[in-house]
Amino acid sequence: MTDRDVERKLLADLRRTPNAAPAEALLQFRRRLLELELEAKGKVR
């Protein structure tokens, strides 16, 4: 997975929750970033 792929997935997630509070959006962003990092390393399900 390239950096560009990760960027696209994260931006898509942010677009799905446009009305989220900034703190909530940041939390979701960080959680998704961690999931993508683990997925890239092959450590997810």
Task: Give an overview of the whole structure.
With 45 residues, this protein is mostly helical. It has one domain. Helices cover 73% and strands 0% of the residues. The protein is built from two helices and no strands. The protein has helices at residues 3-16, 22-40. Helix 1 packs antiparallel against helix 2. It is globular, with a radius of gyration of 11 Å. The model has no long low-confidence stretch (mean pLDDT 83).
Estimate percent helicity.
Answer: over 70%
Number of domains: 1
What is the helix/strand order? HH
Structural class by SSE content: mainly alpha
Count of discrete alpha- or pi-helical segments spanning 4 or more residues: 2
Mean pLDDT reading: 83
Q: Any idea what the radius of gyration is?
A: 11 Å
Question: Judging from the principal axes of the Cα atoms, what is the shape?
Answer: globular
State the distance separating the first and last CA atoms. 16 Å
Number of strands: 0
- Hey, roughly how much beta strand do the residues contain? under 5%
Uncertain segments are none
Largest sheet: none
